[in-house]
Design brief:
The complex is a heterotrimer of chains A (495), B (167) and C (102). Chain A is mainly α and 495 residues long. Chain A contains 21 helices and two strands. Chain A has a domain of 227 residues. In chain A, 77% of the residues lie in helices and 1% in strands. The longest helix of chain A is centred in the middle third of the chain and has 32 residues. The radius of gyration of chain A is 22 Å and the shape is globular. Chain B is built from six helices and no strands. Classes of the chains: A mainly alpha (495), B mainly alpha (167), C mainly alpha (102). Chains in contact: A-B, A-C, B-C.
């Protein structure tokens, strides 16, 4: 590592300094200050995220590898922008919500900046040591965030379950990593693929498949793939709503980013690729089917969105299994995954922003509480409608664009059975998404409520997510280009 | 000679580990856990990884076990001797764990690891192993080293937020 | 000399004992102890591989040191969560910590 490498680490350093700044401001300057001044803190956090985004410019995507630990390629750059956007939206979501519910709202923003740092490291990590460390960094910070309401029993339960499942999953993943190290003598992903395709151990059928399965426990936990999803419903339901929004988008995307990098770069040789592809096909099928079928009978909106989020992970996985190494194609599978994740970020955070607004005003989270919403707050109902049709995958929304690219890749690789299952699943999913729409627009409310007041930051989050969700469907060109460019650096590794 | 020592150590370690997971009283289980950690430290010495053996004792015995014992004592109810040890599926889980062991044992013996024939070490452990570790931490592993320290700070802040007495 | 496979089998056995503890215990602290055993098993693997396939490169030992560090951080946060839960409900039995269903 040289001093000149630090330029590439600029965003990470800014995030680290920013997290420390927020923490210190909270303790030194704002703790005893009047309430008005304390409300500046989220804007400091937003400022840090903005400066970190500017820090991506000098050395973001130059394909430079630093000390074999981190690689700064366009793929990592995509996910860093993604992470900064996601955390900024979560800050907006949390701003009225957390401040009234916890005395530690300053630390909350500092921890959110730490998660952004963890994601930036995780998506750049090109060495098993670094991957493990940054994943755990993200996990440990997320456990704290999920259990942030110390007095709230559901929040504590959410965090404990998340922790117990997460720690077990990471130990299993680690066992797989130790076997890979034993077979190749290296933990560097590039060295791994070389060692696995040349050495006797790598050729052994006894090594690669078990190692893939063990690794999948860790990645699947983050991405909430069945059967590593058991934590998700309880954690999503019990965690503070902005944290749920974070876990279902940014944290999940990180799981996918690591999964793609490890499998495509570390196990990209054809003989190994066929093994992880067939395993992932099975996971994709059970993930979307189980997620959708269980979502059908949910009555709590956060829990419904949790199962929907599991099911969406199944669709996203289709893009990974339909990967083609020819990066000149329109559908490369990986670009579909990136587009899908980006669209899902805005759509799902938007949906959770509506949920946060309603919970903040009424404290209610049941789907039946949404009846008559259109009369009470037509704007919120209209926005949630946009997000729900995007989750369903109806044009012209970002959700449609994501599904189009993921399913298109599957058509190209002729995965007809998988496509048929995915199509049936999409129809099933439409039922429960549109059921919420039915409640909002057609079921009269039991009692007339006052219009729901939405704070400024949350209004900002709603406006941004809704506009981007629609724009992704109307003007998809730039995003398609960006995602395809970003996917290219990984596809080169696939042989 | 070494083989005999290994077998004794391995049996002691596994026995202590087994007691850790089946002892009814959690405080006793925690003490068995400490014994397991010592056994593993001895295995590390057998592998000529002295630094790790010391780190193992300092961190696992000195910090993690102490934390666990603190947690047990702070929540006295969980030392209740009449409590049920296992959940309803412990039989199934036991079968699964045994099966998993067979599978893992087959895997680790079948894979032709790039070690010398007979499985003996390819060379001696370097005499300057600790110096090499230090050089690695400020060299190629500088970034993970920094990340690990940030992680520890964040974990500390998080633990304080969550466990602090309510005001 | 002790062959590599002996160490690996020891680690596999320890890992499975840990898996049993993590999945069968009712008490959250008991589960955490099982997880610690699993992490220790991984460390035996890492150090044994280091000794047998490339003692010149310190990779295996370095990895193990990071595992130990992370385990400490994880235990601190986990036990904090467990204590917070105990304050709320006077129990840390995971079967009783089950408000949410469906």
């Amino acid at each position: 590592m040289r001093a000149s490498d630090l330029i590439h680490l600029l965003p990470e350093l800014i995030l680290l300094g920013g997290a420390a700044l927020v923490l210190l401001l909270d303790i030194v300057w704002l703790r005893r200050a009047e309430e008005r001044r304390r409300q500046l803190l989220p804007y400091v956090a937003l400022g840090v995220l903005l400066v970190a985004a500017l820090g991506l410019i000098p050395g973001g995507g130059d394909n430079v590898s630093v000390a074999t630990m981190l690689v700064f390629d366009p793929f990592a750059l995509f996910f860093k922008v993604f992470a900064l956007l996601a955390v900024a939206l979560i800050v907006l979501l949390a701003t009225p919500y957390m401040q009234t519910r916890t005395p530690f709202s300053g630390e909350f923003y500092a921890l959110l900046l730490a998660t952004a740092l963890a994601i930036c490291l995780a998506v750049s990590a090109s060495n098993l040591v670094m991957i493990y460390l940054s994943m755990e960094f993200l996990s440990i910070t997320s456990y704290v965030l999920a259990g942030y309401f110390r007095q709230d029993r559901k929040s504590g339960e959410a965090a404990l379950k998340y922790f117990l499942y997460g720690a077990t999953a990471s130990a299993v993943m680690l066992y797989g990593m130790s076997l890979l190290y034993g077979a190749t003598g290296t933990t560097d992903l590039a060295g791994l693929v070389a060692g696995l395709s040349s050495g006797a151990a790598g050729q052994s059928a006894w090594l690669v498949t078990p190692a893939i399965i063990l690794l999948l426990a860790g990645f699947g936990f983050k991405a909430s793939l069945v059967p590593f999803h058991q934590w998700a419903p309880d954690t999503y339901e019990g965690a503070p709503t902005p944290v749920t929004a974070f876990l279902s988008t940014a944290s999940k995307a990180t799981g996918f980013a690591i999964l793609m990098r490890v499998f495509l770069v570390g196990m990209g040789a054809a003989s190994m690729a066929s093994q992880w592809i067939s395993l992932l096909v099975a996971l994709s099928v059970v993930t979307m089917t189980l997620g959708n079928l269980t979502a059908l009978r949910q009555t709590n909106i956060k829990r419904l969105l949790a199962y929907s989020s599991i099911a969406q992970a199944g669709y996203i996985l289709i893009g990974v299994v339909a990967v083609v190494s020819d990066s000149t194609r329109i559908f490369t599978g990986i670009n579909g995954v990136l587009i899908y994740l980006l669209a899902y970020l805005f759509t799902n955070v938007g949906a959770f922003a509506v949920v946060t607004a309603i919970e903040d005003a009424t404290g209610k989270l049941e789907i039946k509480d949404y009846s008559g919403l259109v009369r009470r707050s037509p704007w919120l109902a209209g926005l949630l409608f946009i997000f729900l049709i995007s989750l369903t995958g109806v044009p012209p929304t970002g959700g449609f664009l994501g599904k189009f690219f993921v399913f298109g890749a599957a058509v190209q690789t002729r995965m007809w059975v998988l496509l048929a299952i995915a199509a049936v699943n999409s129809v099933v999913a439409a039922f429960y998404y549109l059921n919420i729409v039915r409640y909002m627009f057609f079921v009269p409310a039991a009692e007339e409520g006052e219009p729901i007041r939405v704070g400024r930051p949350l209004q900002g989050a709603l406006a941004i997510t809704a506009v981007v969700t629609v724009l992704l469907g109307l003007i998809p060109g730039p995003v398609i280009l960006w995602a395809s460019e970003s996917a290219r650096s990984l596809l080169l590794a696939l042989r | 000679m070494q083989q005999a020592i290994f077998i004794i150590l391995a049996l002691l370690t596994l026995g202590a580990a087994l007691m850790t997971v089946i002892t009814r009283n959690l405080l006793r289980a925690a003490l068995w856990l400490v014994a397991t950690f010592f056994g593993i430290a001895a295995i590390f010495i057998l592998l000529r990884a002295e630094f790790l053996a010391v780190a193992q004792i300092l961190v696992y015995v000195g910090a993690i076990s102490t934390l666990i014992i603190f947690a047990i004592m702070l929540s006295r109810g969980i030392m209740d001797p009449d409590q049920v040890r296992f959940n309803g599926q412990w039989g199934v889980v036991g079968g699964f764990a045994a099966l998993l062991f067979v599978v893992l044992a087959v895997i680790v013996t079948r894979v032709p690891w790039p070690a010398a024939a007979g499985g003996a070490p390819v060379g001696d452990a370097p005499a300057d192993a600790i110096a090499r570790l230090g050089a690695a931490f400020v060299g190629p592993y500088a970034i993970p080293f920094e990340v690990a320290s940030v992680l520890l700070v964040v974990a500390m802040i998080g633990a304080i937020i969550i466990a602090r007495e309510r005001e | 000399m002790v062959p590599l496979s002996w160490y690996l089998i020891l680690a596999a056995a320890l890992f499975c004992i840990g898996v049993f503890g993590a999945l069968a215990r009712r008490n959250a602290v008991g589960i955490l102890m099982g997880i610690e055993l699993m992490l220790n098993a991984v460390n035996i693997n890492l150090v044994a591989f280091w000794r047998h396939i490339g003692p010149d490169q310190m990779t295996g030992q370095l990895f193990a040191i990071f595992v130990i560090t992370v385990a400490a951080a994880e235990a601190a946060v986990g036990l904090a969560l467990i204590i917070a839960i105990y304050r709320q409900r006077n129990t840390v039995n995971v079967e009783e910590i089950d408000m949410m269903k469906g």
